[in-house]
Amino acid sequence: MSINPPDQTSPASLAQGVPNPWRLSVAPMMDWTDRHCRYFHRLLTRHTRLYTEMVTTGALIHGDVKRHLEFNAEEHPLALQLGGSEPADLAHCAKLAQDWGYDEVNLNCGCPSERVQRGAFGACLMAEPALVADGVKAMRDAVSIPVTVKHRIGIDKIESYDFVRDFVGQIADAGCEVFIVHARNAWLKGLSPKENREVPPLRHELVYRLKHDFPALTIVINGGVTTDDQITEHLRHVDGVMLGREAYHRPWWLARWDELHYGDAANGLTRPDIEAAMVSYMDRLVAQGEPWSRASRHLLGLWNGTPGARHWRQVWSDHRRKLDAPADVSRAARREALPQNVAASREEFNAAAERLTQGMARLDASNLQPISEDEIEAEVQATRATRRTQQSA
Question: Is the pLDDT of residue 11 over 50?
Answer without folding.
Answer: no
